Amino acid sequence: MMLLMNLSAAAELPNIGNFVANLRYMGLGMLGIFIVMGAIILATLLLNRVFSDKNKQDDQ
What we know:
The protein is mainly alpha-helical.
């Protein structure tokens, strides 16, 4: 009997309001990921520019 009650509770639709309310936090998390990725890319470009070999000939 308890198994049947647990299965019927699992079959209920999720609360859509909770999902919509949590979209803000998901968006902030994704924004944070993109900001960190951008900072890593900018740091890499800056370090490549600072420590690049000045005597290196371009492949032209």
